[in-house]
Amino acid sequence: xxxxxxxxxxxxxxxxxxxxxxxxxxxxxxxxxxxxxxxxxxxxxxxxxxxxxxxxxxxxxxxxxxxxxxxxxxxxxxxxxxxxxxxxxxxxxxxxxxxxxxxxxxxxxxxxxxxxxxxxxxxxxxxxxxxxxxxxxxxxxxxxxxxxxxxxxxxxxxxxxxxxxxxxxxxxxxxxxxxxxxxxxxxxxxxxxxxxxxxxxxxxxxxxxxxxxxxxxxxxxxxxxxxxxxxxxxxxxxxxxxxxxxxxxxxxxxxxxxxxxxxxxxxxxxxxxxxxxxxxxxxxxxxxxxxxxxxxxxxxxxxxxxxxxxxxxxxxxxxxxxxxxxxxxxxxxxxxxxxxxxxxxxxxxxxxxxxxxxxxxxxxxxxxxxxxxxxxxxxxxxxxxxxxxxxxxx
Length: 394
Fold this sequence. Notes:
- There is one protein chain.
- The protein has 13 helices and twelve strands.
- It is an alpha+beta fold.
- It has a domain at about 5-125 and about 250-275: Peroxisomal Thiolase, Chain A, domain 1 (3-Layer(aba) Sandwich).
- The strands form two sheets. Strands 1, 2, 3, 4, 5, 8, 9, 10, 11 and 12 form a ten-stranded mixed β-sheet that branches. Strands 6-7 form a two-stranded antiparallel sheet.
- A hairpin with a 5-residue loop joins strand 6 (about 195) and strand 7.
- This is Thiolase family protein.
């Protein structure tokens, strides 16, 4: 089997995913095109050599509809001969794009491919693709007669099951902001972030969602976000601990990762930064949907022949603070190695872009710390999760 290597990875800063956010004036096709153009410019690759662009987007409606990846390829100025496809594995869409790209290379179907993702949550609001619709049908209603729940309720159930206090959740969130702010101040994000200049001339070169002054005391003042009579009656065990402060914010952003076969990288004069070591995807209970990261982590470690202590850096998506804290409790991973430069609580979670964003950050962390192996995992709606292990290459 051929080896799939990562040549480069870039992301935009994260903008608040609401009207008036730093990136809200940028059409998602143009935002996506920016990172596609940036990665070929950084590597010096002729985009005509690309075999495919595999991209993630969750809200595939309105301005992100109609195979949005194809329009981003053309908006980036790539030749019309470059194909593109948009995929949806919910929050893990662009991580799955990386998996598909690597698998295509390993099988011999691709030599050079970009895996990318975009989400403009300010312009394509979360849930808009199913608004007023039943995406499940009678078969799901029969199998889960109690009904499925929103992700915020799933996060509350996880906090209750693992007995995670509001204080612990807020402390974790505050630490995420502290790490991200320090990373910006120390220049650790400079190599991974491409500046965005909006149509009105605004220059966006830093994550808008990072709040350097956040503290547990400030977060403790925020109200519970999901408490409702409908849910309190169904789940009396919930103490209502999830707030806007200990969950990821609505965000706008795009990201891109270029992968190649080892042979193509050598032929094109590209220096691989890492190789895709092992990948896995797992399914879990769609009610407590966010803990699929546990079986996904176990599966990818087993495939890699590695233990949790062999991993030098982890990126575990901070959709909600209890997800990462429960994962830490179950895996025994060293918390100091998890989301070293801050996580999605601070950096943001532009759904379709987050998988490639985490990969971009993970490569940077390994290079900054001299680590060898990195593991990335993301919870996804429906009880799904991806996990990826990469190996840094000198």
